[in-house]
Amino acid sequence: MAKKKTKVNRPKAIQPRGFRDYFGVEVTERAEMLSAITEVYHRYGFDALETSAVETVEALGSFLPDVDRPNAGVFAWQDEDEAWMALRYDMTAPLARVYAQYRNDLPTPYRRYTVGPVWRNEKPGPGRFRQFYQCDADTVGTASMAADAEICAMLADTLEAVGIDRGDYIVRLNSREVLNGVMEAAGVLNPDDPDAHAEERGIVMRAIDKLDRLGPGGVRALLGAGRKDESGDFTDGAGLSDAQADLVMGFMEARGADAAATIAALRGLVGGSASGARGVDGLEEIAALLDAQGYGPDRILVDPSVVRGLGYYTGPVYEAELTFEIEDEKGRKQQFGSVAGGGRYDDLVKRFTGQEVPATGVSIGVDRLLAALRAKGRIGGTSVGPVVVTVMDRDRMGDYQAMVAELRNAGIRAEVYLGNPKNFGNQLKYADARGCPVAVIEGSDEKARGVVQIKDLALGARLAADMETHEDWKAQPAQMEIARSDLVAQVQAMIARAEG
């Protein structure tokens, strides 16, 4: 009787929903971008910091933009000692914990930058993943508006350093204190009872943040009874009266011809609010400091429509927006949008110490910025592979490894073909698939004569698929026979010609 085959349950080779894999050139481009960003941060005097990817849920707090699910936005689990831990959702909450933990050993102000992935347990969508990279810089321990002005200037310099031309971006600056002053004047914020009208304020802030997408009419509807979108779905509004909505709309439309005009308009809107007046004074100081450094409104401007989503901001907030147009998946033109943001968060460290510690910082969305550079055609080409030393005689692997060692010691990326060398054409196809710039060939005849063949693969790639023999390969015009002793120099020259 035949034995029944046992069914093997094999795992599916797919990544989890909302995550993706990155290959070759994508990883290289990200590394190069991170190097460019951190070089600017370092030049501004910030020191590197690397924290654990895992924090306690208590240390992270509940500051995600999704106010309807304040703790659901993180990947969390309970440890064996019943403590709850989670993957970090940003780089700022871990910084607050670090500063509180090591404050007696750190300089004040403490200036740090950090790079790494963050995780958000949110619904994924096109271009929206649950893991993404951030590159942050923060100053902790000073209330000076000069720290905020410096962050804005550094953000502008960073965008230009990675390849975004002046005129293709704008850094927008606003203040949460000014917004609080306007909401106080509108009757939806009571300084003596901060928890009152919290739901209405949340709706107002989210409505302001959607100005670019919904336009003034859509925002006004959300400030009032609510808004029905094109699909028929209805979003509840903040329930403000017409007079209250007028005040908020006036705030969003307060941007004037220059910073002075905008600041004057804002000063009139905040009325007698102490918070609002303090925020306007801060914006005025930051604008003056930026102007003194030569950062005009073509790079950084005061814009009341910027509110930022995270709940821990307490003062100036800023957002970098790319202003050039791209085409969406349906071929429609639209602006690329925001790639970085930040602000002042003077209460975050206080959660640990009980004492207010002023802080301000910025976070660059690295993956968004990479996508922008690809859209502009600044990156996204094929990666250049290594020089490949082909294998003509299996028993001479030592000779081929010696060639590779010479090339590597000269700073040239190189490898020996390690697949089945029986079919020479397969070696060439492999080199073509890797984008290799040069192939090196040394058969027994070349070995006896003290020469090698080197081939410019950029010229020969179109013919590689039809080659079957060593003789076919040698017949190509891009191939040179050189002395074995000239290998390194000739390969360097061939690569230089290809790059030039």
Question: How would you describe what is shown here?
Answer:
- Its main location: cytoplasm.
- It is found in: Cytoplasm.
- It catalyses: tRNA(His) + L-histidine + ATP = L-histidyl-tRNA(His) + AMP + diphosphate + H(+).
- Belongs to the class-II aminoacyl-tRNA synthetase family.
- InterPro entries: aa-tRNA-synth_II, aa-tRNA-synth_II/BPL/LPL, Anticodon-bd, Anticodon-bd_dom_sf, His-tRNA-ligase, HisRS-like_core, HisRS/HisZ, HisRS_anticodon.
- This protein is of the alpha+beta class and about 500 residues long.
- It has 2 domains: about 25-375, Bira Bifunctional Protein, Domain 2 (BirA Bifunctional Protein, domain 2, 2-Layer Sandwich), CATH 3.30.930; about 385-500, Rossmann fold (3-Layer(aba) Sandwich), CATH 3.40.50.800.
- It is about 40% helix and about 20% strand.
- It has an 8-stranded mixed beta sheet with strand order 1-5-6-13-12-11-7-10. Strands 15-14-16-17-18 form a 5-stranded mixed beta sheet. Strands 2-4-3 form a 3-stranded antiparallel beta sheet.
- Helix 13 (about 395-410) links the parallel strand 14 and strand 15 (about 415).
- The radius of gyration is 29 Å and the shape is elongated.
- The model is unreliable at about 65-70 (pLDDT under 50).
Task: Write the SSE topology.
Layout: H1 24-43, E1 47-48, E2 54-56, H2 57-60, E3 76-78, E4 84-87, H3 92-102, E5 110-119, E6 131-140, H4 145-161, E7 169-175, H5 176-185, H6 198-209, H7 211-223, E8 226-228, E9 234-236, H8 242-252, H9 259-269, H10 274-292, E10 300-302, E11 316-327, E12 333-344, H11 350-353, E13 359-365, H12 366-375, E14 387-389, H13 397-409, E15 414-416, H14 424-434, E16 438-441, H15 444-449, E17 451-456, H16 457-464, H17 470-474, E18 479-483, H18 487-499
Parallel strand pairs: 1-5, 7-10, 14-15, 14-16
Antiparallel strand pairs: 2-4, 3-4, 5-6, 6-13, 7-11, 8-9, 11-12, 12-13, 16-17, 17-18
